[in-house]
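Re-run with default settings, no changes from the original entry. Doing this only to confirm the output is reproducible before filing.
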Amino acid sequence: MIIKSFFIAGTVALGAAGAGQASPNLVKNGDFSQSSYTTNTQFGGKSGGTYTASQGVTDWTGGGGNSLQFYFFGGTQTTVDAIDRYNDPKDYFYSSFSSLSPNGGNFVALDGDAKLASTISQTITGLKVGKRYLLSFDWAATQLANRTGATTEQLLVTLGGSTASTSVVPNPSKGFTGWFTETMMFTATSGTEVLSFLSNGTPRGLPPIAPLDGVSLTAVPEPAAWVMFVAGFGLVGFTARRRRETVVTA
């Protein structure tokens, strides 16, 4: 009976704390499932070749000017060329990059060349000044099939006036590191802030590409939720103690 009481009270405590922790994802189309595209393609940047500059990734803005960024349909990244302004052949990935993202669907890929790198961004609304937010995303390091040579890759992530970075990841020629799940903490300084990702790769010329998917930004639970959690387990101890006293009295 004591164990049963512990389970019931513990469940109530967890439920109360869990309710306080519930927080929606403030990023729209964070899984990149929505776009106006029907095939793998460059987006943003400038026109050229068979590509006409467009911003077809729903809710996101690709870099303009000389930037080179791609949109891939999940499962086609090693077989279907991405249309780009250079009319490059083999604008897809080596067979080593055959796995789907942890999210399992479409993703974007950001060129890390300093001359071609630019941010992909989204304006986030509904933030509370001074509140902490947890950003999570999946990313990897790889390179297109028309490139060779060992590389390094890193993502720089900015929310408002704060910037954080992933580790610098080495990748062998024709390689794919596999997907990493990254988490970062930011504190909002405004109710509306721009979230952006920038690929930072080496060497220049034919550098690595950083795939990105599964972007999520959620509010960190208020301390009150943890107070409820602790109070719930205090109730557990009290109930168990009363049970023991009742058994002794009987």
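DSSP finds two helices and twelve strands in the chain. The chain has two domains: 1-22+223-250, 24-220.
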